[in-house]
Amino acid sequence: MSILIIEDDTSINNMLEYLLKNHGYEVKQAFSGTEGLLILDDSIDLVLLDLMLPGKTGEEIIREIKKRSNLPVIVMSAIDAMDKKLNLFALGADDYVTKPFNNDELLARIKVHLKKANKEESKILSYKDIILDLNTYQVTCNKQEISLPKHEFLLLKALMENKNQVLTKSNLFSIVWDTSESADDNTLNVHISKLRNKLKECNPNEEYIETIWSIGYRLKK
Amino acid sequence: MSILIIEDDTSINNMLEYLLKNHGYEVKQAFSGTEGLLILDDSIDLVLLDLMLPGKTGEEIIREIKKRSNLPVIVMSAIDAMDKKLNLFALGADDYVTKPFNNDELLARIKVHLKKANKEESKILSYKDIILDLNTYQVTCNKQEISLPKHEFLLLKALMENKNQVLTKSNLFSIVWDTSESADDNTLNVHISKLRNKLKECNPNEEYIETIWSIGYRLKK
DNA sequence: CTTTTTTTGTCATTTAATAGTCACATAAAA
DNA sequence: TTTTATGTGACTATTAAATGACAAAAAAAG
User: Fold this and answer.
1) What domains sit in chain B, N to C, each tagged with a CATH number?
2) Residue B37 and residue B60: Cα distance in Å, rounded?
3) Rounded Cα–Cα distance for residues A69 and A40 (Å)
4) Which of A179, B7, B190, B219 could form an SS bridge with B13, CB 3.0 to 4.6 Å?
5) Covered bases, chain D (protein CB within 7 Å)
6) Distance CA B37, CA B15 (A)
7) What's the rounded mean pLDDT across residues A141-159?
């Protein structure tokens, strides 16, 4: 994990370098915005940017960085006036710390942003009163949790990812079974049936999966 | 930690409720600004406020909230026009996310503001009759101390830090072994089994770890 | 440095949950 | 009414998880 510090105050820059190296990060130092942009390359995972820079302003630097890639940028600034902060977010800064900052807070924020950039983000689908958590495979219907086996989960996921579309049987087969060839056409029917039963148990008053005769299935409007 | 959601769109409101509950927060839901103001009391630690509400506008709601107390307010809004946002900050909103928002970002911001409001999270985790001290690595179950080897401790810690969530096998692998690749898939099963045995010895009448078939594990509700 | 103890990982077997198949019932189109 | 497709309960096969036993590795003790 490599962090680029762009900060014109030498002592703060060095202090940050020491702090970050001590916590296992690779560190590159720049003492002006333009220098920072020169150093910036694929090896950098996160930028720590001071706002008050000689030459190009912090705002310009952020814009340049974000033009090139979607690196997380944490802004450090003595300005805690709200309007300033706002503009930074609008430009694409991912977070800010106000000077003088707490080292642990800074480290925590760095960690969060590196993790975010590295990990797929959490995704939650919803349809009517069904909530489907793609990260943890949890399914909630009518605020009750249902436990769905893998194939039933994948079926429901496929339907919910294509809310307004009819999914053909071979569509569904290729999504859930990695093949459009069906061993037994009935397999799908059975799974849909089981899924419907479980949903009905949670909410008897609602219909979810609609049969499109001789084509496939879709979620009811 | 209790969060009040004020959002008129039912499905977004419910999705947020799910997300936040899953991350250990208490949640109260309001579907209009006036309802939100009625629910608002001392138990609430943070307000998540949609801007576009029927009846009273978001701006009015913020003013009302801030008149009563200094609760952190995070505004959610589809409007990313700058001037709008500026006014919100002027009114006292503490942060904002634009819709559609990234769940992890929202969680991170909530955490930051709760921390700022000095509602620090403790270094001692508890679940049912298990107490886990992250500082001293002591584990107590049913008032008896258990000594857990490193991997078992980390497993239990991971589960307890994500009380309501299903942790996938690869989640757990990356937490305990620093890799999501498992040499032998059974390794995890064995450790879970050992952990369960030790917990059962302390309290034979309680079940703690639940298996989510073909996905992973989580703590029983 | 060697021995002992503890922890960790692997294997084989048992146990449990899920997936798939069949037979027949039901419903829709022709 | 006939044909064709879908729905569903019961059964079997398949796959995943739990666990006792053991070996390897690491840590602690001597």
Assistant:
1) 2-116 (3.40.50.2300), 124-219 (1.10.10.10)
2) 11
3) 10
4) B7
5) 4-10, 16-21
6) 21
7) 95
| Alpha-carbon distances of B80 from A7, B77, B85, rounded to whole Å | 29, 7, 7
Q: How confident is the model at residue B178 (pLDDT cuts 50, 70, 90)?
A: confident
Residue A59 has pLDDT above 50, yes or no: yes
Global pTM value: 0.76
Rounded to the nearest 10°, the torsion over CA A155, A158, A162, A165 is -50
* CA B115/CA B61 separation, integer angstroms: 23
What tens digit of pLDDT does each residue of A29-56 get?
999 999 999 999 989 999 999 988 887 8
3-state DSSP assignment of residue B174: helix
Looking at residue B166, the DSSP 8-state letter turns out to be P
Does the CB of A147 sit below 7 A from strand D?
Answer: no
Q: Is the CB of residue A42 inside 7 Å of nucleic acid strand D?
A: no
- Tokens 């991997």: give the residue: B151
**Mean pLDDT of the A59-71 span:** 82
